[in-house]
Amino acid sequence: MPSSDDRKAPYHAFHFVIEIDGIQRGGFRECTGLDSSNTVIPYREGNDPLTPRKLVGLQNYNNITLKWGSSDDRELWNWRKKVVDGKTERKNGSVVLLDEAGQEKVRWNFKMGWPTSWTGPALTATATDVAIESLVIAHEGVDRP
């Protein structure tokens, strides 16, 4: 029986940075969309039983959404602006999960990403919340090396 010292503790989800070909930032509030799935294709030949076989279809990757507090840093905005101007620049990037000491623990790499949308902060004169921007990145695959 393994001892309690052999047990792997899960990492906290709050300490991560984003690296995108030349853009390295911390301070993101949220990162979602690190997933992959395959389409299921039901298939049945004429003499098969009434239950279809389930074949593997196309690989799908959801878009990655990043949220962060607005600041005067314009790197992500400038990347999105290139798409708006018809000069789409695809970039590879990583979402890197860190431990409490700031050491890398897990890395998810995405490839051929480009920003599909940017959302500015919701501004309210009576609020005290941080102004949050978001960027959605379409990509062609996630890997965990």
UniProtKB/TrEMBL annotation:
<protein>
    <submittedName>
        <fullName>Phage tail protein</fullName>
    </submittedName>
</protein>
<dbReference type="GO" id="GO:0005198">
    <property type="term" value="F:structural molecule activity"/>
</dbReference>
<dbReference type="Pfam" id="PF06841">
    <property type="entry name" value="Phage_T4_gp19"/>
</dbReference>
<dbReference type="InterPro" id="IPR010667">
    <property type="entry name" value="Phage_T4_Gp19"/>
</dbReference>
<dbReference type="InterPro" id="IPR011747">
    <property type="entry name" value="CHP02241"/>
</dbReference>
